[in-house]
Amino acid sequence: MITTVTDVLSLLVAFSVIVLIRRSRNGGGLTGLAHRARLARRRRLRFDPAAYGLPPLEQLDARRAGPPPPVYRSKEIQAIAHAAWEGDWRPAAAYVEAAGRDWDERWSRMELLQQVMEQDDSWLDAWLLVQPDSCEAATLHAQRLLHQAWAIRGSEYANKVPADRMAAFRRLVPASIDAAKQAAELGPQDPGPWVVMVTAARGAQYSHEQFRPLWEGLVARAPHHYTGHWQAMQYWCAKWFGSNRLMLEFAERTVGRAPAGSPLAGIYVHALYELVKRSGSAALPSSAAAKDLLVQAARSLDQVPEGDERLPRLRHLLAHYLNKAGRYEAALEQFRLLGPWCGAEPWTKEVDPVAAFDFARGTAATKAGTTAGR
């Protein structure tokens, strides 16, 4: 059963992580260090937000990346969670089925049910017992095994993980792949099991030759699957089984393939974020073509429906990297679209996210129009 309001709220954004910042909007709740940081940034850069179509500093809100989901969605999720935790799996099954062949939406709903399972997964066992041929239930089981594997292993480096935990991890990851293969046989057209396999490939330490058939199987069923591409980008990054070059090449191709209305081009800004985490800002591509690619990604994201919950976090990263690239007019447009919301990376990595966001948007505003042809 739902034990706290937080349990319900944690489900509202499906696969995104809500960062709760315990700071007031006007600096009254800041630590002394954070407050001084905000004042220092404001002194370095003075601008009138209203003159650029931006909300005032006092309205900036670091509690969320973007506007909250509609009330009807929270009620729907609450009802599904309640039913599942009471042992009724049928609303969960209907919730997934209602997505039809919108594979991104279908996967988003599967990820939400994964969160429901973290509280109590006995309802999934009941579903599997009644409908052993359900691809959706079988895929959720494969997801469950993979999540259990990583929960046991933890996030430490491999040489820091106790032997018994690593042994359990190495047993569960292949088991999740086997379960996903069985799910794929139950639903030959469903890309969901292939997303699980692509995700599990890192933990299974698959070589490039082993990974490629999984990737081909996924894109054959859903060529523009957002989460599938994000997981593949992780596989190709330097910390796993690729390199900075392979990751960026994959992400660059993804921008060109993004269809209208899809957030797929946002994979490129995720790749840049991964690149900076590993190699620092100096590693960012600096060619004119790389900067133009950011503008292309921005144009692609402009076609995504505003209600897409993935969009705000992508816009925050995009605004940041457009600023870094000197494409200030394009960055300013992202800040206008974001409005007062600043509870997302990269701002939340700073002592004072509001100050960091305000300084970045001020930079874009005051420098827009001064770097033509750059």
Could you describe the 3D structure shown?
The protein has 374 residues and is mainly alpha-helical. The chain has a domain at 70-216: Serine Threonine Protein Phosphatase 5, Tetratricopeptide repeat (Alpha Horseshoe). 61% of the residues lie in helices and 0% in strands. It is built from 17 helices and no strands. It has helices at 5-9, 32-44, 71-85, 90-97, 103-119, 122-130, 135-153, 163-186, 192-203, 208-221, 226-236, 244-257, 267-279, 288-301, 311-324, 328-338, 353-367. It is globular. This is DUF4034 domain-containing protein.
SSE blueprint:
Blueprint: H1 5-9, H2 32-44, H3 71-85, H4 90-97, H5 103-119, H6 122-130, H7 135-153, H8 163-186, H9 192-203, H10 208-221, H11 226-236, H12 244-257, H13 267-279, H14 288-301, H15 311-324, H16 328-338, H17 353-367
Helix pairs in contact: 2-17, 3-4, 4-5, 5-7, 7-8, 7-9, 8-9, 9-10, 9-11, 11-12, 12-13, 13-15, 14-15, 15-16, 16-17
Protein name: DUF4034 domain-containing protein
